[in-house]
Amino acid sequence: MVQLQNQFPENYSFAADGTMGAGEMPEPDVHIITSGGQSMPAHSRILASASPVLERLIARPQKRRSSVRKIHILGVPCDAVSVFVQFLYSSKCDEEHMEKYGIHLLALSHVHFVPQLKQRCTRGLAERLTIENVVDVLQLARLCDAPDLYLKCMKLLSNNFKAVEETEGWRFLQNHDPWLELEILQFMDEAESRKKRTRRHREEQSLYIQLSEAMDCLEHICTEGCTNVGPYDMDPNKNKSPCSKFSTCHGLQLLIKHFATCKKRVNGGCLRCKRMWQLLRLHSSICDQPDECRVPLCRQFKMKVQLDRKRDDAKWRLLVRKVVSAKAVASLSLAKRKREDEPRVSTNYHGMRSYKPNLN
């Protein structure tokens, strides 16, 4: 058992306000009674200053007149109570004690309102979570209002549910706490739904980024020309090197070539041509300089939209906004990368600026 008498030097005493000062250590005036019936001497001022719950218990009127007050801390091992009281004296708890009594210390810190120890136990138990103990720790975190530990337990349980199902703790939970079992299953269902929503959002964002790149390539092809396709007034024999988005640009050039020679597009029977029509319409919806734009049919699509605004459906407007947003994000990311690649400017102590290369 931890010997509390040796926690402080003998030449310390307590002032009238309860603070420690030089002098003799006062005699213990409180006895803590544990589940094993053992009595542990302690000092009421230390206990009261560390825990408001213990302070109320100490201030409670006694039924019998006695020089020593008694406080019962039951339901946990005697050694765990010793470590708990040691923390009230020293505000320290080593790893060995946390390993042995972490669960009991969390319960004691919650019941007696010792936030510092509760945070220490929450971190310690989170670091020691396993498949075997996660159900027990989860139940305790729920009872002791430890949301960080509760969430960590839920995530571990959700990610390793098949293995947790085989443990004794899970079988006990099913037989004695069906509400917590339902809570766990609901958490797992919501977690799976969040994963699906996140996956769908990423796929949508990837599509919008691809469409944004396609818009840039379409304007690039129709203005400057690329490897195989360019404006009608540009020399076709002039050699063009691949652009920075050549994978997207090359596919778009093949689509433009097909669109120019396809026989089915007149009757709307070609899927590739329909895709080209949609790209041209999307460019027209985004373009803010239709009078100067060299992309085919840009002005025509603009005029058609102005004449027939009722048919400009909500889904199409949403698509246009998403592509514009993706284009803005991509341009900001590109500008940020350029700034990071540029040499950094620093000022020396003479006030003169010097250049430092970016080594990251």
Automatic annotation (TrEMBL):
Keyword Coiled coil appears in the UniProt entry: no
PROSITE patterns to which the protein is assigned, alphabetical: BTB
Sequence ranges assigned to domain BTB in this UniProt record: 28-97
UniProt xrefs under InterPro entries: BT1/2/3/4/5 (IPR044513), BTB/POZ_dom (IPR000210), SKP1/BTB/POZ_sf (IPR011333), TAZ_dom_sf (IPR035898), Znf_TAZ (IPR000197)
Gene3D superfamilies the UniProt entry points to: 1.25.40.420, Potassium Channel Kv1.1, Chain A (3.30.710.10), TAZ domain (1.20.1020.10)
Any one biological process term the GO annotation gives: regulation of DNA-templated transcription
Pathway stated in the Swiss-Prot or TrEMBL entry: Protein modification; protein ubiquitination
Region (Disordered): 341-360
Keyword set includes Metal-binding: yes
GO molecular function terms listed in the Swiss-Prot or TrEMBL record: calmodulin binding; zinc ion binding
Keywords: Metal-binding, Ubl conjugation pathway, Zinc, Zinc-finger
Entries under PANTHER family matching the protein: BTB/POZ AND TAZ DOMAIN-CONTAINING PROTEIN 3-RELATED, BTB_POZ AND TAZ DOMAIN-CONTAINING PROTEIN 2
Protein name, entry field: BTB/POZ and TAZ domain-containing protein 1
Organism (species): Abeliophyllum distichum
